[in-house]
Request: fold
Amino acid sequence: MKNLIFIFLAFSFTTFTSCSKDDGGSGSGDCSLEAKIDGADWCGSANFNVLDLGIAGTITSIGAGNTDMEAVSLQFMDKTTGTYDLAGKLASYTENGTAYQSTSGTLTISKFEGDKISGTFSFEAADLNGNTVSVTGGKFDNLKKQ
Reply:
């Protein structure tokens, strides 16, 4: 099951990282997902997708990227509203080719209706060398399903 999550995570990163640059600063003109990365404002163009694994369940993936080659990715094993634990690599922040995988955090889905999803999130993450990043104040509203 974990292999399926990692495959979906890789798919999500490549699918969700295209967007248009705004008039300066980090992010995109769309800015449909916002957060603070180590206290600095961050935004990216986002959408979501749902993968039905049959008897193994469902994975919902939310991804955002910007033209600075930065991305935020969130996954949870359901397709309904609620609060989800992001510990265990279910969220990531990628910057300049370095992936930071979540070690703790929460994702709260406040709306999941048809092809739209809204929610908030925050998580702590680490790379393979033990460097850490804090992602706080994350939010998205009415993201469209891809």
